[in-house]
């Protein structure tokens, strides 16, 4: 019913509704963001990882921190999972959350900021101190009406930073991204740009900007390591993208006065991130990972991180609800390039027919001439996970993508059912160990 109503209500009305709620919340809670150091993180991929790492790093550095992301919420020592199936909940949630952070004595808050949340004004009346841009690749194109409008939606965070009441405003930009110049164009009192040493700058570097550049990058099965100046960073986080994520976090840490050496020690202690290339331990001798990757760029990054030295058995689906139908065959094509076995399955169908969604992913496999004997379709996601684990041999890798640490699956008629890919994988491994 809610989905039907939303289709009938003009977008401008929905956006104004959220704006008024945010304004009411800000007034009611006495503009809590003005009493906090507010750091917003936007981009297509890596947002949740950057929020998670930055919140944990600032906490370890001695600050009392709050954070809001698609993974979890944190206020000081209290941490609880995000069960909204929404990164930026509406109905003045953010203003209420910030007020609770102030009441708890927090000094800093790190917020994952989405394009839809920005367009709908869920960020309204939040005074940002810092805005971080991770990267941009096609996503939510149908929702926003094109790639340019998607980029502009992300830019709303930097426009909000420019209008913020805070005295010193900081922007942190991935200089290797093709859209870096657009995000730099908003300006700030302090600008940090980051990239790996072998990445060409994709924008003119502002004269006063501070560059954070990694050197001697190494990516292998045990994690990543690199240098910034004379400081060596080592992490068990996997994949090339996590070097960029860490550079964003380190840039933010520098802006907060943390030393390179102290950040290296703190970040090395963070062993994994919930639902982001999260490894499921087992006695079967196989590698099992769960990851949130739900965009073509993120999916390719995950497969690259895991597929160099192992056979990949990939459990793959795509969200329904009319979300980015264009990417379904593209994700199928990406899977063909890296996976030896593929199991296509249900993900979050909403009101769409799961069979139709899977057929659109399968079209990418067929177009790439992937042999039928190397993939199968299993609508039941639990059965797909169990099957992938059952056919994996010692040393091979099972990668389950699309949901990560999410605890709900969105199905027809607006219903959400309890779900956790990780728990299903754990149970399947227990059965396999018997």
From TrEMBL:
Pfam families: Mur_ligase_C, Mur_ligase_M
Protein's UniProt keywords contain Ribonucleoprotein: no
Keywords tagged on the record: ATP-binding, Cell cycle, Cell division, Cell shape, Cell wall biogenesis/degradation, Cytoplasm, Ligase, Nucleotide-binding, Peptidoglycan synthesis
GO MF entries: ATP binding; tetrahydrofolylpolyglutamate synthase activity
One GO BP: cell division
Taxonomy, superkingdom: Bacteria
PROSITE patterns: FOLYLPOLYGLU_SYNT_1
GO annotations of cellular component type: cytoplasm
InterPro entries linked to this entry: Folylpolyglutamate_synth_CS (IPR018109), Mur-like_cat_sf (IPR036565), Mur_ligase_C (IPR004101), Mur_ligase_C_dom_sf (IPR036615), Mur_ligase_cen (IPR013221), UDP-N-AcMur-Glu-dNH2Pim_ligase (IPR005761)
Location(s) in or outside the cell: Cytoplasm
Every Mur ligase central domain range: 41-252
Keyword Cytoplasm assigned: yes
Pathway field: Cell wall biogenesis; peptidoglycan biosynthesis
Residue span(s) of domain Mur ligase C-terminal: 275-404
Family as reported in the entry's similarity comment: Belongs to the MurCDEF family. MurE subfamily.
UniProt cross-references to NCBIfam families, sorted A to Z: murE
Protein name: UDP-N-acetylmuramyl-tripeptide synthetase
Organism the protein comes from: Candidatus Terrybacteria bacterium RIFCSPHIGHO2_01_FULL_43_35
């Amino acid at each position: 019913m809610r989905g039907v109503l939303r289709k009938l209500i003009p977008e401008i009305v929905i956006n104004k509704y959220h704006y008024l709620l945010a304004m009411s919340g800000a007034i009611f809670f006495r503009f809590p963001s003005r009493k906090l150091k507010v750091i917003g993180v936007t981009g297509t991929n890596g947002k949740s990882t950057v929020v998670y790492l930055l919140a944990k790093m600032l906490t370890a550095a001695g600050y009392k921190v709050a954070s809001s992301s698609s993974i979890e919420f944190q206020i000081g020592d209290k941490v609880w999972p995000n069960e909204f199936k929404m990164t930026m909940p509406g109905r003045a949630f953010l203003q209420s959350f910030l007020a609770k952070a102030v009441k708890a004595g927090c000094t800093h808050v790190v917020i994952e900021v989405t394009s839809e949340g920005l367009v709908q004004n869920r960020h309204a009346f939040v005074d940002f101190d810092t805005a971080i841009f991770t990267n941009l690749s096609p996503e939510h194109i149908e929702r926003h009406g094109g790639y340019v409008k998607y980029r502009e939606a992300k830019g709303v965070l930097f426009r909000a930073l420019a209008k913020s009441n805070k005295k010193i405003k900081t922007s942190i930009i991935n200089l290797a991204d093709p859209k870096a110049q657009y995000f730099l164009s908003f300006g700030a009192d302090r600008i940090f740009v980051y990239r790996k040493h072998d990445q060409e700058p994709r924008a003119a570097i502002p004269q006063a900007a501070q560059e954070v550049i990694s050197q001697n990058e190494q990516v292998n099965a045990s994690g990543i390591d690199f240098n910034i100046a004379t400081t060596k960073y080592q992490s068990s986080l996997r994949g090339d993208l996590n070097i960029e994520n860490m550079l964003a976090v380190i840039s933010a840490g520098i802006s907060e006065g943390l030393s390179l050496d102290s950040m290296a020690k703190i970040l090395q202690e963070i062993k994994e991130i919930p639902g982001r290339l999260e490894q499921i331990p087992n006695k079967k001798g196989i590698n099992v990972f769960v990851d949130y990757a739900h965009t073509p760029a993120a999916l390719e990054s995950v497969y690259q991180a895991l597929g160099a030295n192992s056979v990949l058995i990939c459990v793959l689906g795509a969200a329904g609800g009319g979300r980015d139908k264009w990417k379904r065959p593209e994700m199928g094509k990406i899977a063909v390039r890296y996976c030896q076995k593929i199991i296509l399955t249900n993900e979050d169908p909403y009101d769409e027919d799961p069979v139709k969604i899977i057929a659109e992913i399968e079209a990418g496999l067929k177009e790439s001439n992937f042999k039928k004997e190397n993939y199968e379709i299993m609508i039941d996601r639990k059965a797909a996970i169990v099957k992938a684990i059952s056919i994996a041999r010692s040393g091979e890798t099972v990668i389950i993508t699309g949901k990560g640490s999410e605890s709900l699956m969105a199905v027809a008629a607006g219903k959400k059912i309890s779900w956790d890919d990780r728990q299903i994988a754990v149970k399947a491994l227990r059965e396999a160990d018997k």
